[in-house]
């Protein structure tokens, strides 16, 4: 094969590989948007760094919005799926539903709709769960947390049961509002998400 043809061949391989680099869409609220943190300190940014370090060519798009509810996320998602065409959607919504005392059933319907839309767009889904503080009452907190498990089982998607696993009871890991993790806690959040995400990465 002539040298020019060989060079063209390898250029085409590089072009095709770049064109098919997988995209991870982080679809969450302030816990993923980096509320109260300096730029670059939120766990989705740390995720991009870890992917590169481990040899994954995925691109992370963090489209999380502070204050977002599952209903708001549901209404915005179709346009984001069309724009970013993600291969994986990390669905981290519901915390604001709980803080507002909304019915878990409504949250479940919104989560299921977002899972269906993501699936129709060709994406895999990682559902990320949340828990409410005990002052919301045992019945509500139990039902709220169970909703994520029920949705994951019904829709057959992997679940990270609790985004703040391992440090939720450590006040020093949270900002002054007691809700949002500090910069020092972001690697812990990433480790929790990574355990659910890594098996999906190997399929892309």
UniProtKB/TrEMBL annotation:
Keywords: Signal. Residues 28-184 form the SGNH hydrolase-type esterase domain. GO terms for molecular function: phosphatidylcholine lysophospholipase activity. Coiled coil: none annotated. It comes from the Bacteria. The keyword Glycosyltransferase does not apply. This is Periplasmic lipid esterase.
